[in-house]
Amino acid sequence: MDGPKTRVNFSMLPKHAGQYVCVVGKNLGVGPGGMTLSLETSDQQKMTAHFSKPQKDPLSAYVELVGKVGPDLSLQVERAVSFGSEFDLDAYNEVVQLSAQLPAIFPSSSY
């Protein structure tokens, strides 16, 4: 997981299959057993994230997930960060789109 992570929305996931990315979205709920999370991405699409071990700590309403994009466009999560109960996903989505159009101005994030 070392190296830069591209910030993406759901529509960008196919271009990043097999790569590590950063996705921010609204937490729609953790599945039974704490191994999956349903997420509404910044472009208002739904996706599934998979954890390697059960989530013990509760996640906030908005989260950042860093992980590897699977062939089914799900995310194998390496790291999850709570962003609190209020977050402007529309503004964030604008930044994600701009960063894709202008990569020299918005370099990928390193974690």
UniProtKB/TrEMBL annotation:
GO terms for cellular component: DNA replication factor A complex; site of double-strand break. The keyword Metal-binding does not apply. One of its GO terms (molecular function) is single-stranded DNA binding. Keywords: Nucleus. GO terms for biological process: base-excision repair; DNA replication; double-strand break repair via homologous recombination; mismatch repair; nucleotide-excision repair. The keyword Lyase does not apply. It comes from the Eukaryota. It is found in: Nucleus. Belongs to the replication factor A protein 3 family. This is Replication protein A 14 kDa subunit.
